[in-house]
Design goal:
Layout: H1 5-19, H2 31-57, H3 62-69, H4 72-87, H5 89-99, H6 109-146, H7 169-214, H8 227-286, H9 292-331, H10 339-351, E1 359-360, E2 364-365, H11 368-389
Antiparallel strand pairs: 1-2
Helix pairs in contact: 1-6, 1-7, 2-3, 2-4, 2-7, 3-8, 4-7, 4-8, 5-8, 6-7, 6-9, 7-8, 7-9, 8-9, 8-11, 9-11
């Protein structure tokens, strides 16, 4: 049974984006669909504007500013990511067409298992991120409801055109704030899952190429083969090798388009994560260890770190598999093949000296060292802020 690459790698984020009106629209979108998309985006941009207005009013108060701004970078990031997604729909269509190309279709049961395995991995990791994000949102939602100070307050410190003291103003403000944050969490999950799913699709294709290379048949003179059988095997190996090269070049073009489409998103995310982790760390030190706010901030930290780790892990996996492909070519029975095969192998090995590296902003490689570097930078800024606060 043939597997559908789109269903395997993009089914969940596709459903979420469709539900929020962000997914690829038809050539002639209905007015209600356009209005719904605009409404969803308005909830996100309005939240940022309200945050800026509030921060301007408390400028100079470090505690109030940190409490108001810990969501600012997150909201700005999701707005930027979704806006870029909407503006790059043509690129998304091209990438989807790539994923449906015949050259990427698994030919054997083993190759199908490779696709299913990697798609399952990225789905589980993205689901952990979503679960953590929704848990954080739920803790934020509980804070105004379980607080015993006696006064009403909204979940987040942002400017609102009315106060929380009276009804139904409190209920309206509460629903708007939490509705916007839950939508933000789903948008984050969906857009990131699209990017990460496409990167892991590239990893799956490299694994399939490795599987093909490992299936090249031996044509040793010591084997009991007739001249006709040896000639046939050499011909088949040449044909398979050319197919592997074509598939590898298509993977490179696919990854290049993915990087061109999402590199700015990821760069913005990596840059903002430094500030987010720093501010969250500061908020954790200001919160009572037994309070809901403390656990919500701690869970928010886990959410941001898991998002950062996902990008760096996927980029590292892509680079590792491209290196493994080169090693598998060297380990193949190339020395038993004809001169045509050896010449083609030499050129291919030279071209593959530079592994596939996915870069944020066409500059920062997504890798485990990058993850560690961001953590170190975040801690350095946190130490400075914490010392200033004390």
């Amino acid at each position: 049974m043939a597997v559908n690459s789109i269903d395997l790698f993009l089914s969940r984020p596709k459903r979420v984006l469709k539900a929020l009106g962000i997914w690829l629209t038809p050539e002639r979108p209905m007015f209600l669909h356009s209005f719904y998309t605009a409404f969803i985006m308005l909830t996100q941009y309005a939240f940022i504007i309200f945050e800026f207005v509030y921060i301007a009013g408390v400028w100079g108060d470090l505690e109030a500013m940190s409490e108001a701004s810990y969501l600012l970078f997150t909201q700005a990031s999701v707005c930027y990511k979704v806006t870029v997604f909407l503006l790059n729909k043509n690129n998304i269509k091209v990438l989807i067409e790539y994923m449906e190309m015949d050259i990427f279709t698994p030919e054997t049961e083993e190759q199908q298992k490779i696709m299913v395995k990697l798609s399952s991995q990225i789905k589980k990791l993205c689901m952990f991120f979503l679960t953590s994000a929704l848990t954080t949102c739920t803790l934020w939602a509980l804070m105004p409801l379980l607080d015993d100070t006696g006064g009403r307050f909204f979940p987040f410190r942002i400017w609102m055109p009315f106060g929380p003291e009276k009804s139904p103003q409190f209920e309206i403000g509460y629903v708007y704030q939490m509705g916007s944050i839950y939508i933000s969490a789903f948008l984050f999950f969906a857009v990131d899952s699209i990017t990460l799913g496409m990167i892991m699709f590239g990893c799956a294709q490299l694994d399939i190429i490795i599987d093909k290379v490992q299936k090249m048949q031996s044509v040793s003179l010591s084997s009991k083969l007739t001249d006709e059988q040896r000639t046939m095997r050499i011909s088949n190996n040449n044909k398979l090798f050319v197919e592997c090269i074509d598939q590898h070049q298509t993977v490179i073009r696919f990854i290049e388009i993915v990087e061109d489409t999402y590199h700015a998103n990821i760069f913005f995310q990596l840059s903002g994560t430094v500030a987010i982790i720093c501010i969250i760390g500061l908020r954790i030190t200001m919160s009572e260890p037994s309070s809901i706010q403390f656990y919500s901030m701690l869970n928010y930290m886990v959410t941001m770190l898991s998002q950062l780790l996902l990008y760096c892990w996927c980029g590292s996996e892509l680079t590792t598999r491209s290196q493994e492909l080169r090693d598998s070519l060297y380990q193949s029975p190339w020395y038993e093949q004809d001169r045509k095969f050896k010449k083609l192998l030499f050129i291919t090995m030279e071209c593959m000296k530079k592994p596939i590296v996915f870069k944020a902003g066409h500059y920062i490689p997504l890798s485990r060292p990058t993850f560690v570097s961001i953590l170190r930078s975040s801690y350095s800024f946190f130490a400075v802020l914490n010392q200033t606060h004390n």
